[in-house]
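Exam revision sheet. Question 4 asks you to relate a sequence to its structure. Input first:
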Amino acid sequence: MKATSLIGLLLAVLLLAIVTAGCATSVPAGPSSWDPSGPDRSALALRPVDRSAGRATAGDAAFLSAPLASPGHAGNVRQGEGGAGGSFSVLLGARHLDEDYWDPLENQGVLGIEAEFRPGRSPLGIEFGGSVSANSEDDYLNSGIDLAAAIAEFYVGPRLTANTEGSVRPYVGGGVTLLTVAAEGRTTLGGVVIDVDDDDASAAAYLHAGLQADLTRGLHLGFDVRGVFGSDITLFGASGDADYIQLALSVGANW
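Answer key, structure tokens:
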């Protein structure tokens, strides 16, 4: 997939998130605590109380408790008001790196974790996570050389989530990431094992977008499209990058 295709896909998901956020209806405010059809509170001062039996009558008790049980009082309490929202996800997928630099290890499987936090009902929050990808090739081109490469990553940045109160939530996020890469080559000559390896690290930028859909009240399933760009690494004296395009499925918990 070319970089222009990735940018187009990410922009399409971002547009979906904006449209969904604009169309989502706000939670209506609870009804007024004063119900004009309910009992007249001013009548309380004028209502006589039967003290001859040493206690209020059943009618007095019902009159006094009616305002507390009115729908207006219950409607003023909103569940989760002022709390934090977010999710924790495990991601499993595949990423593609620059073939000219990484061949034959440009396609790597990836396993990652990610958490995001949002204050209250705000669509804007913060995300952070980490991942590891790797691939290996034994006896490359029948040369007797075994190759392996791996990339470890940690990232943090802002995240915008649409329809935060709904069961389907599009999102888009981006920020800075730190990549640590390692590569190794091994062969055997005359019974002697020759092993060479190298590693490097680079900061870069990332952009991703996706969708989470609730399976239950506390669990979700989703997908994520991600790109990293702007990295700069050197392995075995050759300069290149660890930029990639990634597709992943996610499963996790909501709060």
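Marking note for examiners. Residues 13-39, 41-46, 61-81 have pLDDT under 50 and may be disordered.
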